[in-house]
Inverse folding.
């Protein structure tokens, strides 16, 4: 039990810090950061979704903005048009995205890496085109669409501080579920497919089924983040859902580190902080990110978090070896 | 257990496996030998779901041709590969756990809800994985990445991974390739221990000393066709087999 608390210590500390940050920011007058915090939480969920498909299962997707869009627009439309309470529309929209993800992955699971990337780009473009030329203008096309805030039992999360806590709890729940999935038989199947799909097949893993499953779960995550975005910003328009957004998700994931729980967190915080810092140089933003991404891939291929973890392991591993030698 | 009837596979004009029929029933170690290019690995691929050959493959009472590898595995056939096919960045013990995949019943929702049944199953699987690693003497490497093992150890791990799902039959494709003489002696012992676990072994191997010493029954493939079969002594003294290996004058 003590061991368990010890190993979970950094996570618990992180959660505590996250819970107390708004008080700190309000006290110091930096309420702007609370808004950034809300974005961090929803992006962490989106990027964690991408991590399931890209980091764990080894399947590329350059079309995840499409799932983000499906979640965002579906949830907004269901609430605006059918008056279904927002918290339900967020889940319904995510389930719809999961089904679409499965339908996309079923034929696409036969494709190898570079063809899959093209297929997902095409998928992203199709969804974007549907949004800007929607039937009956239901998405508001280029004008965009307004939406209501989330509310739970009549309590609306309509301020940044309120949404911050809503986002934080969602984020913890989604990360917990991801943790449970990747540690299970299903997660092992994902990683086995990434590492060697032929051997995975030989070990009794239905590769196609698990690829579809990974895509589907991933779509659910990213769509839920999209729905959070809608009901946090309360206004969405097509430019948020272009291929640039898909690439942004990939940059965040690669910055932080793939196939880990905290990699997406580190990546999202880093990228959003950089975006704010680089705001004066906005026109060069993508250029700077491009150069930095190259640096990350070449210098620290494990991402920031991945590199920290392996450095830590090397350090403690070295210490253990030393300890063993002195024992002998 | 395994019954193969008139299995043939062609790649373009080349007949890689030509009308092979054989039967494997007894609990013993079977060997599959033949000169280079005889079609041994191709034959393995035909009877384990990698290829869909002409002819019939019966396994454990049901007709299996046309099924995929994972379905053969679910039916109780496991295999190792000529070229090592481990999950390199997973730890050694995780590799063994993946080998148990088709025996674990929990699904995604059990995992998310962490039901008591799922937790018990995972705990038991982990305990069994460590037992298997002890069985082949790899337990001290259990938490290392599989890619960091020596060549011989990787071969051993492939065998353990294949055994993890309690198969009825295991196909070993050149298990001794790249092993040193000590490791080969260990392998000899291990093969007999596998038999004690009620697993039939069918192996392709080039090391004749190992094959003749450990196998109870041998099939000889030559140019894709079954040339001979029988006890090791019979096969060794078969003039056709000797001609195939040494290149006799027709």
């Amino acid at each position: 039990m003590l061991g368990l608390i010890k190993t979970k210590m950094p996570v618990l500390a992180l959660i505590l810090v996250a819970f107390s940050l708004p008080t700190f920011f309000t006290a110091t007058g930096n309420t702007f950061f609370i808004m950034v915090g809300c974005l961090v939480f929803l992006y962490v969920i989106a990027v964690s979704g991408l991590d399931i498909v890209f980091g764990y299962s080894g399947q590329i997707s350059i079309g995840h903005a499409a799932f983000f869009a499906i979640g965002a627009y579906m949830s907004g439309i269901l609430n605006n048009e059918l008056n279904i309470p927002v918290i339900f529309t967020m889940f319904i929209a995510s389930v719809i995205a999961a089904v679409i993800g499965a339908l996309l992955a079923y034929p696409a699971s036969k494709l190898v890496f570079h063809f899959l990337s093209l297929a997902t780009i095409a998928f992203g473009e199709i969804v974007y085109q549907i949004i800007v030329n929607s039937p009956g203008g239901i998405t508001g096309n280029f004008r965009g669409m307004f939406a209501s805030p989330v509310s739970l039992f009549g309590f609306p999360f309509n301020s940044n501080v309120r949404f911050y806590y809503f986002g934080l709890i969602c984020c913890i729940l989604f990360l917990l579920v991801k943790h449970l999935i990747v540690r299970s038989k299903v997660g092992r199947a994902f990683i086995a497919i990434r590492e060697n799909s032929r051997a995975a097949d030989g070990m009794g893993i239905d590769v196609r089924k698990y690829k579809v499953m990974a895509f589907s779960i991933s779509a659910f995550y990213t769509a839920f983040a999209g729905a959070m975005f809608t009901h946090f910003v309360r206004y969405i328009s097509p430019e948020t859902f272009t291929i640039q957004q898909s690439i942004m998700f990939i940059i965040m994931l690669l910055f932080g580190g793939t196939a880990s729980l905290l990699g997406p967190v580190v990546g999202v915080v880093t990228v959003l902080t950089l975006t704010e810092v680089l705001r004066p140089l906005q026109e060069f933003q993508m250029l700077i990110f491009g150069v930095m991404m190259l640096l990350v891939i070449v210098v620290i291929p494990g991402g920031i978090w991945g590199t920290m973890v392996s450095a830590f392991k090397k350090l403690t591993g070295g210490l253990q070896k030393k300890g063993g030698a002195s024992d002998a | 257990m395994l019954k193969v009837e008139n299995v043939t596979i062609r790649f373009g004009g080349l007949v890689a496996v030509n009308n092979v029929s054989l039967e494997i029933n007894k609990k013993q170690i079977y060997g599959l030998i033949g000169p280079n290019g005889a079609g041994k690995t191709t034959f393995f691929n035909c009877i384990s779901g990698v290829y869909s050959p002409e002819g019939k493959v019966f396994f454990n009472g049901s007709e299996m041709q046309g099924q995929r590898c994972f379905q053969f595995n679910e039916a109780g056939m496991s295999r190792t590969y000529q070229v090592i096919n481990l999950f390199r960045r997973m730890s050694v013990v995780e590799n063994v756990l993946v080998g148990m995949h088709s025996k674990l019943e929990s699904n995604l929702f059990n995992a998310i809800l962490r039901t008591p049944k799922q937790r018990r199953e995972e705990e038991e699987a982990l305990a069994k994985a460590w037992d298997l690693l002890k069985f082949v003497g790899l337990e001290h490497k259990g938490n290392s990445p599989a890619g960091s093992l020596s060549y011989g150890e990787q071969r051993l791990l492939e065998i353990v991974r294949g055994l993890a799902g309690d198969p009825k039959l295991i196909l070993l494709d050149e298990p001794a390739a790249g092993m040193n003489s000590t490791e080969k002696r260990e392998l000899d012992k291990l093969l007999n221990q596998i038999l004690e676990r009620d697993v039939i072994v069918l192996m392709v191997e080039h090391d004749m000393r190992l094959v003749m010493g450990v196998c109870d029954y041998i099939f000889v493939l030559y140019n894709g066709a079954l040339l001979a079969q029988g006890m090791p002594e019979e096969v060794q003294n078969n003039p056709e087999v000797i001609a195939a290996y040494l290149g006799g004058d027709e």
Observations:
- Residues 53 and 214 of chain A are 5 Å apart (CA to CA).
- Chain A has a mean pLDDT of 91.
- The two ends of chain A are 30 Å apart (CA to CA).
